Amino acid sequence: MRHNKRKYRIGTSPAHRRSLLRNLAIEVIDHGKIKTTHAKCKAIQPYVEKLITISKEDSVANRRLALSKLGNAKAVRTLFTEVGPKYKERDGGYTRILKLADGRVGDNAKMSFIALVD
Fold first, then answer.
1. Residues 37-46: pLDDT tens digits?
2. What are the residue ranges spanned by the domains of the chain?
3. Residue 96: left (phi > 0), alpha (psi -120 to 50), or beta?
4. Model-level pTM?
C-alpha cells in the first residue's frame, strides 16, 4: 500500500528531485525569495522549514546535519548566522507562497514566489 508516500512529481527520478530541492533551498536561503512553479514551491516549503528549525539552535551537530541536507557550506553559514537567529522566537511558518496571476510563457505553468517571512 502507498499510504503517506505522496511526493511532488517535480523530477523524473528521486535523485533529480533531491538535487532540485537542494538547489532551490540554497537559493531561498541566499536570496530570501525566488520565483518558480507552484508545484516546486509546494514541494520545497517543508524542506526549507525543517532546515530553519534546525538552524535555530547553533551546534556542531546541527551544522553537520544541515550540511548533509544542503551540501553547500556557504549556504549553511548564511542559514546559521542570518536566517536562524531571525526566527528564534517564531514557532513555525517561516516561509510564504504567493501565487502569481499569469502563467509561464511557453507552457502556461502556474508560477509562484516562495519567500521567507519577515
1. 999 999 999 9
2. 14-116
3. beta
4. 0.90
- Please state, in angstroms and rounded to a whole number, the distance separating the CA atoms of residues 62 and 55: 7
110's grid cell: 502556474
Whether residue 88 is predicted with pLDDT greater than 80 in this model: the reply is yes
CA angle 41, 94, 76 (to 5 degrees): 85
Report yes or no: 113 and 92 within 8 Å, Cβ to Cβ: no
Measuring CA to CA, which residue among 56, 47, 54, 9 is closest to residue 28? 47
Residues 43 and 67: their CA atoms lie apart, in Å, by: 20
String of b and e for 102-117 (b: at least 16 CB within 10 Å)? eeeeeeeeebbebbbe
Q: CA Rg, the chain, in Å?
A: 15
Q: Assign a CATH topology to domain 14-116.
A: 50s Ribosomal Protein L17; Chain: A, (3.90.1030)
Nine cell digits for residue 23? 538547489
